[in-house]
Design goal:
It is a single chain. The protein contains 33 helices and 2 strands. The N terminus and C terminus are likely disordered. Among the domains are: about 60 residues, no CATH class; about 55 residues, Leucine-rich Repeat Variant, CATH 1.25.10. The longest helix has 21 residues. It is mainly α and about 550 residues long. It is about 65% helix and about 0% strand. A hairpin with a 6-residue loop joins β1 and β2. This is HEAT repeat domain-containing protein.
Length: about 550
């Protein structure tokens, strides 16, 4: 803060004479330096005043404290910030101010406290606020709440948590004594400060909010019901994770529907619905925002709406009210809210809900569409398979996966085991469904083609034909042209006629030199077919909705 002089030989700054003097004063343990520095605070020269202030901030003498607080209003905002950040204790001087009967001195003490919080003074302020006849009770109450909130914040973010924890305990003890005699003062500031600092484990608090005869019970419940202060909301919500929650406080979770509370409630419940929370939620028979105040849900974002829906389903507010809530959320503008509603509607099977699910199949959000598609078959909706197949080629993987899981019985192992018992039409229709649904079809078919049993190899080729799966299996068919089984080679050569690639043409030309006449004939026929037709990739006919898979 003090100016420096420059050396003639370079740009490196060196301390000026006055700066050296103040550095010496700052580092000395001789209290005789304090009066000198105090006098320097009133110097007409700004450099001297700043040097004196800087040095005094290293002193812990009461005289230094008094000098700083008495000149508080003469300091600039920047200088006040220096004092605040210096870590100097002003407790002695400020205590003298707030215990003064002089109005100006008392007001000055509060002013300093609001910028330089001295947490050790919380008990002293509490005594002042407790005195209903004190002239400055209200202003002291505001400062008391400010100090409590500042201490709570420092406990979360500060680097002196051990020391602050001891200070908090002393503050809670002092405020707790005031709470025990609440009927004598009825100070909201004391009540608020206590609730800001305390945790749910505090025995005095648990007694106060559980015992309806406690002098502060009604005031505490009322405050917990309406305060939007984050620390108070945190205290209310902590009851959700309490193994033995206070019933009056737990009920507040269901009664509050203000934006600040709803925002914090839903944020906490996102992905955090453990058994304890579910058990406590089940005790709620009244949830205002799920009943007469459902309009508040429209102000939440999608993730918050989803958390609210899942929370409501854990409560005991009644099936009818829950259903009305789900219908409301199913039409939410947020996809996460709609998705949560559809997930919970899975347990409602009735014509109205079925119609809603059918509408959701066309939802613009892929996640919502997938959830609607998942519920089609369990609900027994007519034409479900056909509707699912229409979404099999969806560009969204979540929709594809949902369709495949919903049609899981159309899998290759099951199809293979039933193949020989099926009619030709069933083989064709079901086979093409399996080809599109079971992503393992190509791999499993390839395994069949190299099986030791010749009938399994030939059956695999027949399956390729009925599935119209020639192009997917082209590499395996080309490889089969080298197999020792001439029946396999001959069938592979025939099927490659549907694969008009240069690789297939080359392989077929080589097969025309095969030692087996049937292989040569089929290879020649396939080459003629390729030259005459360029076959397009076959697609799945989504109009096929066969239920002919053998059970």
């Amino acid at each position: 803060m003090i100016g420096t002089s420059q050396t003639c030989s370079g740009n490196r700054s060196v301390p000026s004479g006055i700066e050296k003097t103040f550095q010496l004063f700052a580092n000395t343990d001789n209290h005789a330096a304090v009066p000198v520095l105090v006098n320097a605070l009133d110097s007409p020269y700004s450099e001297v005043r700043e040097g004196a202030l800087s040095a005094l901030l290293h002193q812990r003498h009461a005289v230094a404290q008094r000098a700083l607080v008495q000149r508080w209003r003469k300091f600039t905002p920047v200088q006040r910030t220096w004092i605040e950040l210096s870590g100097i204790s002003l407790e002695i001087a400020v205590r003298e101010l707030i215990q003064s009967s002089d109005h100006e001195q008392f007001a000055l003490g509060l002013e300093v406290l609001n910028q330089v919080p001295e947490y050790e003074l919380i008990p002293a302020l509490a005594l002042i606020v407790r005195d209903s006849g004190h002239s400055y009770r209200d202003s002291a109450g505001n400062t008391l709440v400010h100090l409590a909130a500042s201490l709570r914040k420092d406990l979360r973010t500060g680097d002196k948590k051990v020391g602050h924890e001891a200070v908090r305990n002393r503050a809670i003890d002092s405020l707790g004594d005031c709470i025990s005699h609440y009927q004598q003062h009825e100070s909201v500031a004391i009540l608020e400060s206590f609730l800001v600092l305390v945790t749910r484990e505090n025995q005095l608090l648990r007694e106060a909010w559980n015992n309806t005869k406690h002098p502060a019970h009604t005031a505490i419940i009322r405050f917990l019901r309406h305060s939007s202060r984050p620390e108070i909301i945190d205290l209310v919500l902590s009851s959700l994770t309490d193994m033995h929650p206070s019933v009056p406080v737990l009920n507040i979770v269901g009664l509050r529907h203000d934006p600040a509370f709803m925002s914090e409630l839903t944020a906490r419940l996102q992905g955090n619905m453990n058994d304890t929370i579910r058990r406590n939620l089940s005790k709620l028979t009244k949830v205002a925002w799920a009943e007469e105040h459902r309009n508040v849900l429209e102000k939440l974002n999608g993730l918050q709406q989803a958390a609210a829906v899942h929370m409501a389903m854990c409560t005991s507010i009644g099936t009818d009210r829950l259903y009305e809530l789900l219908l409301l959320m199913a039409s939410s503008q947020h996809s996460s809210g709609r998705l949560a509603a559809l997930e919970e509607l899975a347990s409602y099977v009735d014509p109205q809900t079925n119609e809603l699910i059918l509408d959701a199949v066309s939802d613009p959000n892929a996640g919502v569409r997938a959830e609607a598609l998942r519920q089609l078959r369990p609900r027994g909706i007519p034409g479900a398979i056909k509707l699912l197949l229409q979404h099999l080629d969806s560009p969204q993987l979540v929709v594809q996966d949902t369709v495949r899981n919903s049609l899981a019985e159309f899998n290759f192992p099951r199809f293979l085991s039933a193949f020989d018992k099926m009619s030709p039409d069933a083989q064709k229709n079901t086979g093409r469904l399996v080809r599109g649904i079971d992503v393992n079809t190509q791999r499993l078919l390839a395994n069949e083609m190299v099986d030791d049993a010749s009938y399994r190899r030939l059956r695999a080729l027949k399956i390729i034909e009925v599935m119209d799966n020639h192009l997917d299996m082209e590499a395996d068919l080309i490889k089969a042209l080298q197999h020792e089984d001439h029946f396999l080679r001959a069938e592979a050569a025939r099927l490659l006629g549907r694969c008009p690639s240069s690789a297939s043409v080359t392989a077929l030309r080589q097969a025309m030199l095969d030692r087996n006449v049937r292989v040569r004939e089929n290879a020649e026929a396939s080459l003629r077919r390729i030259n005459g037709n360029k076959v397009a990739v076959p697609s799945i006919d989504t109009s096929i909705a066969s239920e002919e898979v053998a059970t």
